[in-house]
Amino acid sequence: MRALSSLRWKIALTTTLVCCTVAAALGVLVHNVVARQVVGEVRKDVERDLDHALGHYEYGTSHGDVNVALDPPGLPRPLRELVARGRTGSMVGTQDGKPVMWAAGPADQKALAVWIPYANTRHRLRDLDTAILVSSVVAAGVVALAGVFLADRISRRLTTAAAVARRISAGDLDARVAFPADTGPGTRRYHDEVRDVAQALDSMAASLQERLEAEKRFTADVAHELRTPLTGSLAAASLLPEGRPKEMINDRLKALHLLTEDLLEVSRLDSGVERADLARVELGRAVERVVAGTRLPAEVRIVRDAVVFTDRRRLDRILANLLVNAHKHGRPPVEVTVEGPVVVIRDHGSGYPAELIEQGPKRFRTGDPGRGRGHGLGLTIAAGQAAVLEIELGFANAPDGGALTTLRLPVGRLPEPG
């Protein structure tokens, strides 16, 4: 959200900056054009008066009402030097402390100069600059408001798309952006990049949902199809004569049967129809019972016992899977600590893969194949059952080595009956 808010202000500020830059450039251009025109008119007037004054001086007649003088003390030095070289010219200066436009030309080795008031011209130019400045400020303000409005509209739509993307990444594959269509009677069609992003996101979510649904259906179908022939194979294997071949066949069939049951459990968890049967459970005793039931060596330490409301069968399944995983992929000793509603299971092996810690368990994903380590359906089932019980399941590695699995059971009351 903060990044999108930043984007909103970046767009608004960029729009305003571009508008101010364009307004400043146009203002300078207009000022230069108008100033050149206005000053040029005044310069023409004073040069015309100079021509008349030089003509009258040559014939010794009166100069009329023109301000004219020979070598006046207020004549600007650059203009005086120009006349000394036998040339005529004009420039802005002062006379008696007032701004005037000077024009001078050579007359008997002297400078014959005329001048006309320039104060009104300066006022006109100043008024022009004020008008340009006010217009630029108003234009920049209007464009800034329009930029904020458009940027806010874009930002809100991107915020919606980002929120939907987060929901999809969290597992809500039914989430869609679905901006309302800009088509219909009297509606102008245009290319909308934000809508393109939203449609691509919706299309991706739909495609991902279809693939996951297909994967779930395939898993359930395979498990159901394998169950019947496996049951028959186990029954047939029991009729074989005793010996090593029978033991090997039974071991393989039992392993395949367990895998099939795990696949069926995963498919039930994927369907979202599983419901917990909550009851009062003493957590410490439940953990001790599960450890004893697995017949796996583990040290149970109860720092502080707690009574929780949970589904005992599902909790047993979670704890058993985690203990089996610790013994299968870790190294002893395996320690189980109960402190209030929190259960921590730790082994002393090489720890969980980084991918598992970051993304959680995935079915049939393995760690480093070269080391023969990984995890399959056990952790996936544990995570699925924990979600049904609203247990927070965390995976981490201990600083001094070993995998850490933490279960935080919710503390509450049983729901009211009926």
Structure commentary:
Helices cover 57% and strands 15% of the residues. With 418 residues, the chain is of the alpha+beta class. The chain folds into three domains: 2-141, no CATH class; 196-271, Helix Hairpins (Orthogonal Bundle); 279-408, Histidine kinase-like ATPase, C-terminal domain (Heat Shock Protein 90, 2-Layer Sandwich). It has a five-stranded mixed sheet. Strands 1-4-3-2 form a four-stranded antiparallel sheet. β8 and β9 (342-346) form a beta hairpin. It is rod-shaped. The two termini are 42 Å apart. The model is unreliable at 182-188, 368-375 and 414-418 (pLDDT under 50).
Q: Which helices and strands, and how do they pair?
A:
Layout: H1 2-59, E1 68-70, H2 77-84, E2 89-95, E3 98-107, E4 110-117, H3 119-169, H4 193-237, H5 244-271, E5 279-282, H6 283-294, E6 299-304, E7 307-310, H7 312-329, E8 335-339, E9 342-346, H8 354-359, H9 377-388, E10 392-397, E11 403-408
Parallel strand pairs: 6-8
Antiparallel strand pairs: 1-4, 2-3, 3-4, 5-7, 8-9, 9-11, 10-11
Helix pairs in contact: 1-3, 3-4, 4-5, 5-9, 6-7, 7-9
Protein name: histidine kinase
Domain Histidine kinase: 221-413
Keywords: Kinase, Membrane, Phosphoprotein, Transferase, Transmembrane, Transmembrane helix, Two-component regulatory system
